Amino acid sequence: MKESINWKSKKDVLKSVQQDGRTLQYASEDLRNDKEIVLAAV
Q1: Fewest CB atoms within 10 Å of the CB: 1, 8, 17, 41?
Q2: How far is it, in rounded angstroms, from Cα 14 to Cα 24?
Q3: Residue 9: which of 35, 39, 37 has the closest Cα?
Q4: Distance in angstroms (rounded) separating the CA atoms of residues 1 and 34
Q5: Where are the beta strands (DSSP E) in 1-42?
Q6: So what's the pLDDT on residue 2?
Q7: Which stretches make up the DUF4116 domain (predicted)?
Q8: Distance of CA 10 to the CA centre of its chain
Q9: pLDDT tens, 1-42?
Q10: 18 contacts: CB under 8 Å, gap ≥ 6
Q11: Is the C-alpha dihedral spanning 14, 19, 24, 25 positive or negative?
């Protein structure tokens, strides 16, 4: 799963963390600090 995702793309990361919040660890640092992404992960 994590191999096919662009971890610098907000759209891709948001979709991934909505399905499995644990994938947040693979996101770029900027996106790991993005409030919308973090809230979707929990």
Answers
A1: 1
A2: 9
A3: 37
A4: 21
A5: none
A6: 54
A7: 13-42
A8: 7
A9: 556 899 999 999 999 999 999 999 999 999 999 999 999 999
A10: 40, 41
A11: negative
| Structure-token match 């973090």, residue found | 38
Encoded tokens for 17 = 């963390």
Going 4 to 12 to 42 to 19, the CA torsion angle's sign is: negative
Task: Answer yes or no: are the C-beta atoms of 7 and 30 closer than 8 Å.
Answer: no
Torsion of CA 24, 1, 9, 16, to 10 degrees: -50
For tokens 């499995």, what's the residue? 20
Residue 3: per-residue pLDDT: 63
Residues 15 and 25: their CA atoms lie apart, in Å, by 14
